[in-house]
Amino acid sequence: MSQPATHHNKAAAAFLKNGQRAQWHDETLWFVRAKRDKAAHQIPEWEALRNLGSQIKEHTLSNLDEYLLQFEANAKKNGIKVHWANNAAEHNQIVYEILLHHNAVNVVKSKSMLTEECGLNHYLTERKISVVDTDLGEYIVQLRNEPPSHIVLPAIHLKKEDVSNTFHKHLHTEKNNQDPVYLTRAARQVLRKKFITADAAITGVNFAVAETGGIVVCTNEGNADLGVHANKVHIACMGFEKIIPRAQDLSVFLRLLARSATGQPITTYSSHFHRPKAGQEMHIVLVNNGRTEQLGREAFRNSLKCIRCAACFNTCPVYRRSGGHSYHNSVAGPIGSILAPNLDMRKNADLPFASTLCGSCTNVCPVKINIHEQLWSWRQVLMAEGYGGAAKKTSMKLMTGVLSKPAIYRLSAGMARFFMRYLPFLVNNRLNPWYKQRDMPSVPKESFKDWYKKNRNHE
Ligand code: SF4
Fold first, then answer.
1. What is d(CA 415, CA 410) in angstroms, rounded to the nearest whole number?
2. What average pLDDT does the structure give for the chain?
3. Which of 79, 151, 204, 365 has the highest CB neighbour count under 10 A?
C-alpha cells in the first residue's frame, strides 16, 4: 500500500517560517481560549451543562434514525421541502437543481462548514452561479481565494494589514488604511447590495429540532437573517449530526456553544426558522457524507457530538502553532483530525499525528468528546491499515525492541546519557528539529534505577 505524504508537517513548517506571525497567531487564539475560560467559570452549573449536553447528544446518536425522520415529518408539516443527500456530490446537485428551478444565478451564503466540506462554492461557480459568503471573515478569505482556516474565526490567520491589502485590491478601499471600522464599513456597503440583489440565500444549520421541524442558525453579524429575509428561496444545508430532540435542549446547547466558541454568554443572533415566510420557498438538505459510517465506528462515534464551537482549536498547542490551513481539511484542529480520516483515510492519515495528545482539547470540549483518546485510536487504526509511513513504522519497531528488553533499554539509556553529556553535538544539531527552539536538558549523573539501588535502604 502506498504511503501518505505528510502534508501537515510540511505545511506547518511553512507556517512557522514567519516566526513573528506564528507567535501572534498562537497568542491570539490563546486570548480566545482565556475568554472561554472566563465565560465558562462565570456560571457555577458549567460542568452540569457539559454533562447534560453530552448525554443529550449520546441519546440522540443512539436514536439518530428516529429523530431524523421525526424532524423530516415535522419540517414537511411546516411547509418546508426536505431533501436527503448521501454524499457531497448529491448535496451539491440538489442545491444546484433548486437554484436552477428558480433561475437563481446570484446567491448569498452565511457560514456553513458543511458546504465547505462538500465544495459547494466551487461546484456552483463552475456552473456560472455566483456565491458570495456574507460572514465577514468568510468574505475576506473568499476574496483571497483561500479556504477558512478556523470554523468560527475563518480569517484568524490574517492581520489587519492583510485585510487592508485585500480590500484595496478587490473593493478599491484606500491604500494602507487599516482601520477595522473603515474596512468593515467598506465590506458592509458591498454586501448590502449583494443581499438585496441576490436570487436565493443559503445558510448552514447549528441545530435542527426534531420535535418542531425547525432549525436554529447562530451568527454574530445577522447575515443569515438578512439573506433569508431578503430572498424568496432559502436553502439550509445540514449534516445529520445537527439534530437535537427537543426545543428545550436548545437552552443547554446555545449556552455551551457561545461560551465555548468566543466567550460570549450567547451568540448575538440565534435565529429560529420554522417555516417559509409568505411567498418564500424553504428547503432543508440533510447530508450524510460519511456520518453514518463514523457512527458505526465504535471508537469514533462520539465525534458526531461535536457542535463546532472550535474550543479544541483555540486550546490546541499544535493548531495554534501550525495554522488551520496546515490541516488540509475543511474542519481543521483536533476534531477535524478525527473526522477527516473517516472521509479519506489515505489522504488524511497524517492528521491524527498532528497532536501532542496533551488532552487539553478534551478538557475544554463542551460536549465532553474524548478527543485526544480518539486521535490516539486513529493512530493505531492507521498504523494497522498500513498508512503509517516507513520512517514512523521503523522507529516504532526500534522503540518496541528497546523498550521490551530491559538489558537493551539499560544499555541504550546509558549510551544516551554518555552522548548527551560528552558529545552533545551528535543529537543537538541542525539536523534535529526538536532542538531548534529548545535547550538541551541537563543529564543526570546516574539513572533513577542506580540511584534507587543505592538509596532504598536508607529510610
Ligand atoms: S470537538 Fe468539542 S471542542 Fe472541538 S469543536 Fe467540537 S464541540 Fe467544540
1. 9
2. 94
3. 365
Residue 453 — very low, low, confident or very high, per pLDDT cuts 50/70/90?
confident
pLDDT in tens, 327-346: 999 999 999 999 999 999 99
**Cα→Cα distances 405→301, 393, 395, 450, 452, Å:** 37, 19, 16, 18, 20
pLDDT (0 to 100) of residue 459: 56
d(CA 94, CA 101): 11
Cα–Cα dist 52/42, whole Å: 18
Quick one: average pLDDT of 105-123? Answer: 97
| Residue pair 417/409 in contact by the 8 Å Cβ criterion | no
Ligand 1 centroid to 305 CA: how many Å?
Answer: 8
Q: What's the start-to-end Cα distance of the chain, in Å?
A: 57
Q: In angstroms, what is the span from residue 311 Cα to ligand 1's centroid?
A: 6
For the Cβ of 331 lying below 6 angstroms from any atom of ligand 1, the answer is no
> How many other CB atoms are there within 10 angstroms of residue 141's CB atom?
22
Whether 307 lines ligand 1, by a CB cut-off of 6 Å, is: yes
- When mean pLDDT is compared across 115-119, 218-222, 451-455, the lowest value belongs to 451-455
Mutate to test the pocket of ligand 1, among 308, 320, 355, 363 (most ligand atoms within 8 A of CB): 308
Helices (H), 323-447: 333-343, 360-364, 371-384, 390-403, 406-422
Question: CA torsion 326→329→333→339, rounded to 10°?
Answer: -150
CB 322 within 8 A of CB 349: no
User: DSSP class of residue 70?
Assistant: H
Q: Is the CB of 113 under 6 A from ligand 1?
A: no
Q: Per-residue pLDDT tens for 28-78?
A: 999 999 999 999 999 999 999 999 999 999 999 999 999 999 999 999 999
Q: How far apart are the C-alpha atoms of 342 and 355, rounded to whole Å? A: 17
CB of 36 sitting under 6 A from ligand 1:
no
Nearest to 126 by CA among 161, 93, 154: 93
Q: What is the DSSP string of 234-289?
A: EEEEEEGGGEES-GGGHHHHHHHHHHHHTS-SS-SEEEEE-SPPTT-EEEEEEE-T
Closest atom of ligand 1 relative to the 313 alpha carbon: 4
Distance between CA atoms of residues 110 and 221, nearest Å: 10
Helix axes 371-384, 333-343, angle to 10 degrees: 30
